[in-house]
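[User]
Um, tokens okay?
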Amino acid sequence: MPRKLRINDAFKITASIFVFCVAAHVAIPVGAQEPAPGQALQETSPDQAGNIVDQDEFQNLRPFTPTASAALKRIRRAGVLRVGLQRDYQPFHIVDSREGFPGIDAEVAESLAAAMDVRLQFEYADVGALMRLLQDGRIDAALGGISATVDRARYVYFSDPYIISSPAALLSRRSLPSESESVDFPRTRLRGLGDLGALPSLTLAVRAATTTEQLLRKEAAFRRFTLKSYAARSEALAALLSGEADALIADRVYLQALMLRRPELSGAYLTLFETYREDHLSIALAQGDPEFALYVNFFVKEMQRTGQLNTILRRYLESREWLP
């Protein structure tokens, strides 16, 4: 009889522990956040299915918790996102723009700051200086039509691409060869940068110190052409318009916007916009903070998924409404 009592007592103790654990599990759902110091969780109640329900899904959560990345904590604490851009690289950034049309990348930066619920502050520099500002911790992210490359990835981290572009060309019609008018004679196909190989010797204008210049110097298909590099995009365009160059080679997005700004050029110049090689325009970030990089990547994917990014692109590449 005493042995039987001891077994019953053990069963009761085990049952009590089980009930306590079940109750604790129901009371604190998996993933619940601890309240901030001095702040209690708001009252919640189960729905008909037994799920704990918060009237506001964020009511018991803290954004960018103390375990978050250094960048996320600094941005949240300061209340400002510092973004670097290439100044007046249209249509990515536009100086003296019309109201509501600051440029594609300026709008992307505005959306990122809004998603983080902080203010936005811009700094302006070329790509090399932007990477240095990232390494020095003086900006949090850099945009402005920056191409992600293996060489640049040695110094900064790149997000998933938010725009996929390509090197493209604006070709003077004066440089086109005269061809037979016979229907039996195949005319030269000129749709993309790679088709320049079908033409005789050309002089190509390009902005110096860009991925486009690097491509033209490395690719065997362009070595027989004369390549002229210019410090500014405006100088490269001026060389084309003056006849000093036969073609302007640049990013396709930049040339698409140029033709919207200067529609009169279509009569004298041929656009070669077919994709030659994908150029991934990405957000550059400082290395060493993978959690911030994951957040920015998720932001880019959400802009693509929701159609917000396509809406921004159409405003600048399919409409002239942004022009002053």
User: Anything to note?
Assistant: The radius of gyration is 29 Å. The first strand starts at residue 45 and ends at 46. The chain is about 35% helix and 15% strand.
